[in-house]
Design brief:
This protein is of the alpha+beta class. Strand 9 and strand 10 form a beta hairpin. Helix 1 crosses helix 3 and helix 3 packs across helix 7. It starts with a strand and ends with a helix.
C-alpha cells in the first residue's frame, strides 16, 4: 500500500494498524532546534484518546507516546531539541479485541472501506478496519503537536460546532470552555453540553450514530504562505482535512455560505492601520486569498459522517457475493466527530508548518 506520506518539506509518514502491536509516525524535514517536551505531544494525544466519556468508543488505550529518534535531551533533563533528522514516534496498542470482528471477516460493512479495500488490494484487515481505522489518526495528532512548534507564535484551536441536527449558539462562543473538565464534546457553547448529551444518549440507545461539523481556527499565521496555482494554502489544508477518516466535506472561511452572499458582502474590505499594516474589516475568506495567507486567522470547517459501525442491522453482501444482514459489534463512537477535533487541529497545523518552511526556503524569510 503506497501513499502513507503527506507534506513536502514537513513530511509525515504514518504506519501501523488498529489491531497491530503499535502505530506511529516519522516526521522528516522538521528543522533543527525546535524545543518541546514529551508532555507537549502527550497533551494533544490525551485529548484524542478513546474511552473518556460515554459518547465515544470505550476502547481503553493510554496512547502513551515514545519518541525514538531525531532529538537530543536538553541540559534540564526534560526539554527535547530536534536535530533536523527524522523524528520517529511510537504509540502501542494495548486494548485490541480482534474477536469482536470475527463474524464479519468475509462480510462487507456498509459505509466502511471493506469492499473498496478488497477490490483494490485483494485482501483486507477486518480487525477494526486495519489501516483504514481512525486509530491511525493518533499518529497524525503526535505529528501535529510537533508542527505547532515550527511556526513561531502560531496557535491552532478547534471546536465542535454541530452534532447531527443540533448546533451551537455562536453568541456563546468561549474558547476557554472547549477543554473544560465538564465538557466532553469540545463545544465552545456551555449551553450546548446538555443538549448534545441528551441527543447522543438517545442516538446511542437506539444503536445508531450521527455526524458532526468541526471548526478549526489558526491564529498567528504570517501573511504570504502558499502559492497561487498548484500549492494553495487552502488547497493543502482541505486535502489534509479530507484525508481524515469519515470526513465528507471541507470549507474555508464562509465556504458554501459564500454562494448566498452578494459581492459587496463577501469581499473583505481593508483599511491601513496606525502601525502601517493593513486591517481587514471582515474575514469571509478565512484568512486566505488566492491561495496565500493574509495574516488573518485561518478558518476551516469539516463535516464528519455518522459512524458506520452501528448495532442497527443493515443490508450488504459477503466476499462470495451472497446477500447478508450485518450488525457491527465492538466498541464504537456514536459520534466519531467528537474525537476528530484534535485530529483536525493536527492536520491544519501540519499544512501550515509545511507551507511556512516552503515559504522560508523560497524567499529566505
Amino acid at each position: 500500500m503506497s501513499h502513507n506520506t503527506f507534506g513536502h518539506l514537513f513530511r509525515v509518514t504514518t504506519w501501523g494498524e488498529s489491531h497491530g502491536a503499535a502505530l506511529g509516525c516519522v516526521v522528516d524535514g522538521c528543522p533543527p532546534g525546535i524545543r518541546f517536551t514529551r508532555a507537549d505531544i502527550q497533551a494533544d494525544l490525551d485529548r484524542r484518546r478513546p474511552g473518556q466519556s460515554r459518547f465515544v468508543t470505550q476502547r481503553r488505550e493510554p496512547d502513551e507516546v515514545k519518541i525514538l529518534s531525531g532529538v537530543l535531551m536538553d541540559e534540564d533533563g526534560d526539554t527535547l531539541v530536534t536535530t533536523g533528522t527524522p523524528v520517529s514516534m511510537l504509540i502501542e496498542n494495548v486494548d485490541q479485541r480482534s474477536k469482536d470482528y470475527g463474524e464479519i471477516a468475509r462480510q462487507y460493512r456498509p459505509g466502511h472501506a471493506d469492499y473498496t479495500y478488497d477490490v483494490k488490494y485483494g485482501l483486507r484487515d477486518h480487525r477494526g478496519g486495519g489501516r483504514s481505522s481512525a486509530r491511525e489518526t493518533a499518529a497524525r495528532v503526535a505529528a501535529g503537536a510537533l508542527a505547532r512548534k515550527v511556526v513561531p507564535g502560531m496557535t491552532v484551536r478547534g471546536a465542535l460546532v454541530s452534532v447531527g441536527e443540533k448546533e451551537i449558539d455562536r453568541a456563546n462562543w468561549d474558547w476557554d470552555f472547549v477543554h473544560a473538565a465538564e465538557n466532553p464534546f469540545f463545544t465552545p457553547d456551555r449551553a450546548s453540553v446538555q443538549i448534545f448529551a441528551d441527543y447522543l444518549d438517545g442516538i446511542r440507545k437506539a444503536g445508531s450514530s450521527v455526524g458532526a461539523v468541526i471548526e478549526i481556527v489558526a491564529e498567528g499565521v504570517p501573511p504570504g504562505l502558499g502559492a497561487p496555482i498548484y500549492a494553495k494554502l487552502d488547497q493543502d489544508i482541505a486535502g489534509n482535512l479530507m484525508s481524515i477518516n469519515a470526513v465528507k466535506g471541507v470549507e474555508i472561511g464562509e465556504g458554501f455560505a459564500a454562494a448566498k452572499l452578494r459581492g459587496e458582502e463577501n469581499a473583505d474590505e481593508m483599511r491601513m492601520g496606525n502601525d502601517g499594516k493593513p486591517i481587514f474589516l471582515s474575514n469571509h475568506a478565512g484568512g486566505i486569498l488566492g491561495g496565500i495567507s493574509t495574516g488573518q486567522p485561518v478558518v476551516a470547517r469539516f463535516a464528519v459522517k455518522p459512524t458506520s459501525s452501528i448495532l442497527t442491522p443493515r443490508q450488504s453482501i459477503d466476499k462470495e457475493g451472497r446477500n447478508v444482514d450485518i450488525m457491527t459489534k465492538g466498541r464504537h463512537d456514536p459520534c466519531v466527530g467528537i474525537r476528530a477535533v484534535p485530529i483536525g487541529e493536527a492536520m491544519v497545523a501540519c499544512a501550515i508548518a509545511d507551507h511556512y518552511l516552503r515559504h522560508r526556503g523560497q524567499t529566505g524569510r
